[in-house]
TrEMBL record:
Annotated InterPro entries: ClpP/crotonase-like_dom_sf, Enoyl-CoA_hyd/isom_CS, Enoyl-CoA_hydra/iso, Enoyl-CoA_hydra_C
Family listed: Belongs to the enoyl-CoA hydratase/isomerase family.
Taxon lineage: Bacteria, Bacillati, Bacillota, Bacilli, Bacillales
A family per Pfam: ECH_1
Gene3D superfamilies, alphabetized: 2-enoyl-CoA Hydratase, Chain A, domain 1, Lyase 2-enoyl-coa Hydratase, Chain A, domain 2
Keyword Lyase among record annotations: yes
Highest taxon listed in the record's lineage: Bacteria
Name of the protein described by the UniProt record: Enoyl-CoA hydratase
Keywords for this protein: Lyase
Organism: Sporosarcina ureae
């Protein structure tokens, strides 16, 4: 397992766990940390032992956002030359399911990272916010775009303009969070859910993610053409043969991800 400075990784059965590990700074995200998160995700994405990636945070918060100390002295040209968001742009390209289990504070860049997850579980009492406006800036890693697509313009602009804290149940009502669980059960429930997805045929899971992501950006007709190609593609997998054969033979299928 690679040694990282700002995250910890482990494999629990078929779940690749990435734990943000900068708890004294409330897991605020510096550039190297985002690089490590991406590297770990890409490595799990290529690892045959891993079927699902689970993202969690150590300590009292999932993440209080980008590292303000690192950003305070930045100027426009240095951010452009750093290509500040190059790593961020690759996170949504991960093919395997990414489940986020968040707690405490999910602010700014931390909220943007959570919005990159395919499924989001939150501990009861988790607070979310885009406080960038109070620092004289705005989200830069997809926050204005993803939040608006998820909750619609009215609430998005209100939350982004005020920077106010949003409770987990409010976000659940708007379809951003899948489940709210008690803080003590968050990890257990996240692993249980991840295991459920890991038990499904991996190629079907992969193609569903690919198709659902297209639904966000494509017009309906183009999206449906894309879906159809993925549907046909799955008929060249061994798992499709196995799944349907097992149904006919009235037994449990054994999926290999081939
Ligand atoms: N950056 C750097 N350090 C932080 C951050 C942060 N975002 N958040 C907390 N810390 C540090 C604090 O400075 C403090 O350090 P120290 O102990 O050395 O003084 C330690 O973490 C603990 O924090 P607090 O004492 O403040 O803890 P509280 O429980 O009292 O408060 C809060 C928790 C409310 C979350 C508070 O810490 C806070 O408001 N933090 C800042 C939140 C914020 O504004 N986040 C947005 C940052 S901007 C952003 O995310 C832009 C995204 C752009 C794209 C991403 C590019 C990477």
């Amino acid at each position: 397992m690679t040694a990282y400075k700002f995250i910890e990784t482990s494999v629990d059965q078929q779940i690749g766990v990435i734990e943000l590990n900068r708890p004294k700074q409330l897991n605020s995200l510096n550039r190297n940390m985002v690089g490590e998160i991406l590297e770990a995700m890409q490595s799990f994405d290529r690892n045959d032992e891993v079927r699902v990636i689970l993202l969690v945070g150590k300590g009292k918060a999932f993440s209080a956002g980008a590292d303000i100390d690192e950003m305070a002295e930045a100027d426009s040209m240095s951010l452009e030359l750093l290509n500040q968001f190059a790593d961020w742009d690759q996170i949504p390209l991960i093919k395997k399911p990414v489940i986020g289990a968040v707690h405490g504070f999910v602010f700014g860049g931390g909220f943007e990272l959570a919005l990159c997850c395919d499924v989001l579980l939150a501990a009861d009492g988790t607070e979310f916010s885009f406080p960038e406006v109070t620092l004289g800036v705005m989200p830069g890693a997809g926050g204005t775009q993803r939040l608006t697509k998820l909750v619609g313009r009215a609430k998005a602009i209100e939350w982004l303009w005020t920077g106010e804290r949003i409770q987990a149940n409010e976000l659940q009502k708007h379809g951003v969070i899948n489940r709210i669980v008690s803080p003590e059960l968050l990890r257990e429930e996240a692993l249980r859910f991840s295991n459920k997805i890991a038990s499904m045929p991996p190629l079907a899971i992969r193609m569903i993610k690919d198709s659902v992501n297209k639904a966000v950006d494509y017009p309906l007709y183009e999206g449906m053409q894309y879906e159809r190609k993925n549907f046909y593609l799955l008929f060249s997998s061994e798992d499709q043969k196995e799944g349907m054969k097992a149904f006919v033979e009235k037994r449990k299928p054994v999926y290999k991800g081939k």
